[in-house]
Amino acid sequence: MTNIKNILNNAVSLIVVMIVLLLIIPISPFFLDVMIILNISVGLIILLISMNIKEALEFSIYPSLLLITTLYRIGINVSTTRSILTNGGSAGSIIGAMGNFVLQGNAVVGVVIFLIIVLVQFMVINKGAERVAEVAARFTLDAMPGKQMAIDADLGSGLIDEQEAKARRYKIQKEADFYGSMDGATKIVKGDATLSLVTTAINFLGGCIIGMVQGGMGFTEVLSVYTIATIGDGLVSQIPALLISTATGMIVTRAVAEDSLNVEVLGQFGAQPKAIMIAGGVLAILIAVPGMPKFQLAVVALTMMLGGYYLLRRMEEMGGLVPAGAAGVLAGMTGAGGMAEGAGPSLEEELMAEEESFKDINTVYSLINVEPIEMEFGYSLIPLVDEASGGKMIDRIVIFRRQYAQEMGLVIPSIRLRDSSYLNTNQYVIKIKGEEVAKGEILIDYYLALEPPNLEKEIDGIDTIEPAYGIPSKWITVDKREMAEIYGYTVIDPLSVMLTHLSETVKKHAYELLNRQEVVRLVDNLKNQSPELVEEAIPAIISYGGFQKVLTNLLKEGIPIKDLETIIETIVDSAMTVKDLDTITENVRVALKRTITRKFCEGGSMKVVTLDADLEKNIITSLTNGDHGLYLALSPDVMQSVITQLSEEVKKFQELGQPPIVLTSQVVRIHFYHLIEQFFPDMYVLSFNEISNNIQIQAIGNITLQVER
Fold first, then answer.
1. Structural element, H or E, at residue 671
2. Which of 153, 161, 305, 689 has the most CB atoms at less than 10 Å from its CB?
């Protein structure tokens, strides 16, 4: 019993060895018939299997099987060629019977039929299957990272367990391996078709030479004997080859379905009875064309119209129940898993209710409201937000709003949190005033490891970029967290990653959130402390709009507006002699020097990049009066030189881990900031007058005037 089991376990290996021997050992016509019958049977079985599987992975051995069957067919070709050339055109009963049946006494007909079969296989089926397999392999490999991340997201959100996640990962890997193998296996079939043409030519030419030279046959007799043998041999070889080529095309073009190809085809055709009836009607019209076979057209047209009518009545009687083959198509649209109608109100009722609600004008006005800040989430990120599921995001946002108000003096408006079916499951989007300004993707079951500046040892993980600061990072599993910290990585949990991105985005766009209504609230709040100052300044000296512009200028460059009393006092003093709001803002910045110093200074010293004196003089001389005040008209060469030098200096600040700061004179500061803000939005430009006297300034770079002569 054990010996039999061992033989069965190694049956495939033995078959492959026997196939190789076919290329060497002569085979009698009796056994050739047996092998040809097996060849046709295997081809038919493979074709039927390919039509009855639901997805390609159910027949994952197909690439290897394709190689074995091709090798088997080549072995039979070699054996039949040997038999034809050595036995006077005799190579078994099947080859002779097939040749006589197809030729019917006409060699030209047999050759034409054989060539048509080979060309159909070679140019149509094989070429198409090869291209589809190539594209499927490429897209499958490209989609692997996204599928892996989706599985991890579903696992982290609790939609699937660890066992199902492993099964899905295994399936993805198998799918990639399968289509990669199929890409190469289709080229084997293509080579087999080419070889069949060569073998047929050898059989015919070699048979003619042997028959006429060695056998003493006449040309007519040789042509008759060897044509029958050659065409018969080609057909018994190409028929199973055509079956297997067709199976190859079906497998590589097979999408994941709810059922086998037979059921899917019948179901999806049966779901369109009107199309069948219209086709029957068109055929009925063709009966009027002179010379057309009226009886045949009438039978087919009547059959199609009656069949379509029967299917239509059947669908109406079943109350919209979708045929089995179409269930998979409609389930994604209706959510009913095969029923076109689900529980709850119909689509028509919902539309009528919605139409009724819009008769109220207030409902229409609600459509044009724009939220100051919105954050939309994919499905997998909902547990981070939903308090019922233990999500802490709302609490963390409350803390951020309080801290930002204490630091910057601006109260961030409410942040609208909502889920979105348009995003991937692990994506989120941040919107300011209804428009997307930032986007990210996180894995809630992973930790984000930020790479240190001098990475000595790398840890395994999914490569990514930290969304807030653009730092190269890796998503790592929980068990690798301690090791990552040992290697020098900064490890952050997913919620903190998302909140950091949100907070940095809000800080960057805070000046856009300061609307007129918020300015009025800030002024009213200051009235409680300094009513006389507010009464003197607003709106007598500066309007609410002008005050908003000054505060917006400060926030845009990251300057806190918490000390409103000092800001308004400086505005009152400056407005007596200056009307330009940008100049007033510069005076306010000088008055806030302690605040600015505290924000940008660490440990009593400040690392900056300075401007060369000649460059500052060039900037001052390039100032030009315009309709909206002074603007900088710097020459393109100087501008290009400044941008290039700054790009190099920014790298130094990246190594130091601090934001880049440029230090200029007060006259130049605002104009230099406007010059570089579009190129370096995260760079701060300060003037010497904005820094406290007790701070040690360390220049780590200098921007000089470089003009090509």
1. helix 666-676
2. 153
In terms of Cα–Cα distance, which of 610, 554, 598 is closest to 695? Answer: 598
Q: What is the pLDDT of residues 248-290, one digit of tens each?
A: 777 766 654 555 666 666 777 777 788 888 888 888 888 888 8
Question: Is the Cβ–Cβ distance between 446 and 462 less than 8 Å?
Answer: yes
Q: CA-CA distances (angstroms) from residue 11 to 5, 14, 17, 65? A: 10, 5, 10, 13
Q: How far is CA 85 from CA 35, 208, 222, 685, in A?
A: 19, 9, 12, 92
Closest-CA residue to 26 (of 93, 73, 71, 82): 82
Question: Cα–Cα distance between 69 and 62 in angstroms, integer?
Answer: 10
Structure tokens at 283: 């055929």
**Coil, strand or helix: which one is 691?**
coil
Residue with tokens 């819009």: 358
Q: Residues 609, 649: contact at Cβ < 8 Å?
A: yes
Element (H, E) at 149: helix 127-156
Identify residue 302 by its one-letter amino acid code: L
For 462-513, write each residue's pLDDT tens digit.
999 988 888 889 999 988 888 888 888 888 888 889 888 999 999 899 988 8
What does the alpha-carbon distance between residue 493 and residue 635 come to, in Å, rounded to a whole number?
Answer: 48
55 burial (CB, 10 Å; 0-12 / 13-18 / 19+) is middle
The two three-digit tokens of residue 425, written as one number: 């499951």
Question: How many CA atoms does the CB half-sphere of 17 hold within 13 Å?
Answer: 5
Hunting for tokens 């009235």 — which residue is that? 527
Task: Please tell me the predicted confidence (pLDDT) of residue 334.
Answer: 34
User: What is d(CA 582, CA 92) in angstroms, rounded to the nearest whole number?
Assistant: 101
- DSSP SS3 for 272: coil
Residue 207's φ and ψ, nearest 5 degrees, are -65, -40
Q: Which residues contact 485 (CB under 8 A, 6 or more apart)?
A: 491
Say how far apart CA 23 and CA 573 lie, in whole Å: 104
In 3D, which of 121, 123, 103, 100 has the Cα closest to residue 113? 103
pTM (predicted TM-score):
0.50
Distances (CA, A) of 236 to 111, 243, 373: 14, 11, 72
Please return the burial class of 625, using the count of CB atoms within 10 Å of its CB with bins 0-12, 13-18 and 19+. exposed
Residue 87 CA to its chain's centroid (Å): 62
Helices 93-103 and 29-52: crossing angle in degrees, nearest 10, is 70
DSSP 580: -
Residue 440, helix vs strand vs coil: strand
Q: DSSP string of 488-541?
A: TPEEE-HHHHHHHHHHHHHHHTHHHH--HHHHHHHHHHHHTT-HHHHHHHTTTT
Q: What is the pLDDT of residues 23-34, one digit of tens each?
A: 677 777 777 778
Q: What is the largest CA-CA distance in the chain?
A: 130
608 half-sphere exposure, CB direction, 13 A CA radius:
23
Q: Tokens 């076919």 belong to which residue?
A: 22
> CA 453 to CA 488: how far, in whole Å?
9
pLDDT-derived band at 429, boundaries 50, 70, 90: very high
For 143, residues 6+ apart whose C-beta sits below 8 A from its C-beta are: none
Q: State the SS3 of 411-425.
A: CCCCEEEEECCCCCC
